[in-house]
């Protein structure tokens, strides 16, 4: 579903990605872990071209998105993204946040879009919040709306960029619950996270990144119980 | 002082008798202001967006325009346009047209910077979220960024409109018969400086105060939305 080949990315003189290779199969849930500054978020942001790589290729569903000929807006409609800081549209209600893109981009009618949105709100457990503005929602609720907003475009892949890092601890669970449901439905997911419990329980595969490369990858059991790389061991000993 | 002795003051008589004459001038001031603000907003929105464009040419055009009109006095711009440029290109000696063009161009340059700042004040994540859903830059601007920027720019824009209203007094130099010009004409007939200019000042003050009240009203309505 996603294939990343020899990806390099620099911000000025700082080289953040130094040749990343990875593959994500359809229906697979891959968690990316690693210390801050290791390039996890940058990798994720390259996958939907919020950052442009300096070198290397990324394919989604066989299409090379790093090629300048690709219509990136078309690709992004198939790749949902959830941000650490939610980035809900503050001037729109919950329902409008979810229906904006389907109506304006896909050309769905108001009624169709509302129906889709209401279904998604049921799924994330927020049916009673459809006419509320983001400022009236808690962090966990905001993130669940953000997930519903991304899902409304019916993406083939969902990218999560530290979706629970900005939440109060008691709200982390409700967001992870929604993500877990999504994983069980067979959504292809790439999750940058510090939630090791989630990575272990829900992830099919874990990538450990450090210093701009993937240092180690494997099943959650391999990575968490029997890490080979010294850096992986040292990182895990600090976070678990 | 009795009412009769008060009415005997020459300056007051002049002002009362010529009050409609001054008000006509104030109406022209308002016309120039409203038209300049409308054109200025359109120009400012375009120039502000150009200033944020990745396209070098658009950026350069906007920057040159803004720099020139912010970097030279409006007074000189009015003289240049009326005596120098307009006769060459549209062959007009209509001071009203020149006044509106000069004030619009000037207002546009200031508005452009307000628009640019307003757009940049919207959190970067908003653009990213919109783009990540598959919107192109234009859709993201129209549906996500501009509706938020618009709330941010209302207070500085109203400030700018008040400035434009006051600055229209400079077009008296090309004999557009707005409020200040009418004051000048009255003064040269009656020489009642304190009374005439005092009245002119009060009329300006009332107009700007009304604009400010309107601004407060809009801001309060938007805050409760």
Write a brief structural summary.
The complex is a heterodimer of chains A (240) and B (225). Chain A has 240 residues and is α/β, with parallel strands linked by helices.
Describe the model:
The complex is a heterodimer of chains A (240) and B (225). Chain A has 240 residues and is an alpha/beta fold. Chain A has helices spanning 40-47, 72-77, 94-106, 110-123, 139-151, 169-184, 196-202, 220-225, 230-239, and strands at residues 2-11, 14-24, 29-33, 55-60, 63-64, 79-82, 157-161, 188-192, 205-210, 213-218. In chain A, the strands form 2 sheets. In chain A, strands 6-7-8-3-9-10 form a 6-stranded mixed beta sheet, sandwiched between helices. Chain B has 225 residues and is mainly alpha-helical. Chain B is built from 10 helices and no strands. The A-B interface holds A 48, 50, 73-74, 76-77, 79-81, 83, 85, 87-91, 100-101, 104-105, 146, 149-150, 153 and B 123, 125-126, 128-136, 139, 143-144, 147-148, 151.
The average pLDDT of chain A is 94
Cα distance spanning the termini of chain A = 31 Å
Rounded to an integer, what's the Rg of chain B over CA atoms?
Answer: 22 Å
Please estimate the helix content of chain A. 25-40%
Helix content estimate of chain B: over 70%
Low-confidence region ranges of chain B: none
